[in-house]
Amino acid sequence: MSILVYNTLTRRKEEFVPQEDKKIKMYVCGITPYDACHLGHARCYVVFDVIRRYLEYRGYEVNYIQNFTDIDDKIIKRSKELGINPKDLAEEYINEFLFYSEKLNLKPPQAYPRVTQMMSQILKIIEGLVKKGYAYENDGNVFFSVREFPDYGKLSKRNLESMTEEFRRIEPDERKKDPLDFALWKKAKEGEPFWESPWGKGRPGWHIECSTMSMEYLGETLDIHGGGQDLIFPHHENEIAQSEAYTGKQFVRYWLHNGFVTINKEKMSKSLGNFFTLEEIFQKYNPTVVRYYLISQHYRSPLDFSDSQLEQAKSAWESLIDTYEFAHFVLSKKGIKPLITQSLNHSITKRFDQAMDDDFNTAEAIAQIFSLREEITRRIKAEDIGSLPGLISIYRHLLEDVLGLKMPEPLEARKLDESILSLVNQREDARKNDNFVLADNLRKKIENKGYLIEDTAFGPRLKKKP
Question: What distance in Å separates the CA atoms of residue 392 and residue 430, rounded to the nearest whole number?
Fold first, then answer.
């Protein structure tokens, strides 16, 4: 089966064919570390983590790179407001991002390049663009000449003439030959961090940084470049222009962009002040619940944030876990060990693959996992236990390894306090002797220790309180 991806460049779904058989070069724009991580960040990186995981599940070797823009206008502005060094500010929020990445179970990329570690490579590309006539210097600044690149606008489908007046109004700069031109190198202002260059002290513009870092680690043509829809223009449009002008080659084969997280249908962003930090959200919801919520809809669709949506995600995830743990409980009672395999064929696995092959449709893929959950439940009720180990193995593999939804260790695999197990046994004896008052008192003692007790056809089942 082939994988179809929606390519922003062509505005249609296309069969995914990497440059090298079974090897993928994938780059995703990383954070600018100047403030707390919010749910919009989380959606982007969870989405591309799932895409990466699925490609690996399908047998591809994915070289995944994600950068840190650790010097930028926003970092400089914020560091001045706080009275701290820009480097220290960036480091603080990089560490925060890495902390939350682990909470969200994001697989680390092969590399996290930083702008400040790439200055010689950045300067080399800018010099190359100047020599080729695609860029020019003015008073220590270097600008890319947009009209020298005939294909400008091919990603965003914008018309140059209609953009000219807009840019003249919102980004007036007399140093530019054309309002559409963008900075490759910025002359340093008093008190700002700077690096030496052929044009004097300064620092790179935002767009040239990602082109440089992606090509340094992945070569001149990438298979996949990802990011949020807000990056299509101008950031990714400018990346294409400067990269292809420099190399003369196609920069990216497939452009993938995730939809916004919205609040009351309005994009969540720091500039609008309507964002929720991950710290705030994780105080109320388990990170795995948040991850589930973020992939519960198709990645290109907007995701409207609300507590009710997260509560629904929590309820759905808890139902998936309950079935997984109940199945393990049943197997333990039958003295059967679960399988540890990833190669079992099943009709639902095929439908899961079909959903993900269709532009990584996680919403439909999750629906197939719920179908598998229903089948597991039916087998347990019918006491048809023979196929249960294989079904549980598929269930766990799709949820944890492919979708990255970390499953808890079943209680049966944990070392429990003997006092709790003793209470469970005492309660069961009381029930068998029709001493229901004692049984109820023992149940309350079990609950006070953080557990629930559920009576099943297979005996009393102990569950951790949610």
Answer: 33
